[in-house]
Amino acid sequence: MVWVFLLLLAWAVAGAACTRLCLAAVRAASVDENAGRGRDLTLYEAAFLSGGPGRVADLTMVSMARERRLLLARTGWATVVDPRGRDEMERSVIGAIGPGGQSRIAPVRAAAAAADAVGGLAERLVGAGLAVTDGARTTVAAGVRQVRAAAVVVLALGVVALLFPATPDLPRDLVALWFALPLALTLSCLAIARAEVHPYSRWASPAGQRMLGALTRRAANGGVNAGTSPGDDRTYLTSVAVRGIRAVGEPDLRAAFAHRQRGRD
Q1: How many CB atoms lie within 10 A of CB 67?
Q2: pLDDT number for residue 55
Q3: Residue 83's closest CA among 62, 73, 97, 72?
Q4: Which of 52, 68, 131, 257 is the least buried, fewest Cβ under 10 Å from its Cβ?
Q5: pLDDT tens across 237-258, in order?
């Protein structure tokens, strides 16, 4: 009968999605949650763990702009004021702007995010157990999305099965009950995932998320070890590192970053 084929399909979809999510959750849980103990995150590390390479580039440009060493215009242009970068990240930004000393912010951001300095930062964080590898990135989040999609598919298949005429030997209630089983499997997996591995991070491992939380709490108390120059407004830059450009308070600076490439924070 057609409903049996639809039921088998529902079980296949639900089983594959839940298996993928469970495996991803097990891999995430196997990471050493004690990684990073005894050390503090720098702002660059916090930016990467919160938003990836693009966030590191944003933080670097905001930091330089607040110290008047980089001019970020409302029109979306970056102009170098001080060509002497204080660290690898700043030198990457200056190098991305080019010898002319002026460039659009969007290509500068993209080039700085892809620079060796950010790549080295990522490798160190992965090695310390604070960041996830490229292969594991988004695995849990993607698994959750797949299980959500599977739940919708199972529900749709159940509705289709109920549209077929009922028979005395197989009432609609019984058909609905059979389809409720794979639906319950997907919903229970989602509930467990939310309780055990939420929030789902694209960049930070469980240990990295824990350290980000500690950094945010210290920032709120005014005790951030920023790892940048003494003149930085550390609490402000911590907010930018963790929350992105939406944490920038200056209207002109926010307008400058409105011209960057979309789809990244």
Answers
A1: 16
A2: 95
A3: 97
A4: 68
A5: 999 999 899 888 888 888 888 8
Name the CA radius of gyration of the chain, rounded. 24
Cα–Cα distance measured from residue 69 to residue 90, given in angstroms and rounded to the nearest whole number:
10
Residue 67, CB-side half-sphere exposure with 13 Å CA sphere: 21
Cα atoms in the 13 Å half-sphere on the side-chain side of 17: 29
- Residue 203's alpha-carbon distances to 38, 109, 231, 255, in angstroms, are 21, 18, 28, 27
Cα separations (Å) of 161 from 4, 10, 137, 253?
Answer: 9, 11, 37, 56
Question: What does the DSSP 8-state code read for residue 34?
Answer: T
pLDDT at residue 217 tops 70: yes
Report which secondary-structure segment, H or E, holds 13.
helix 2-29
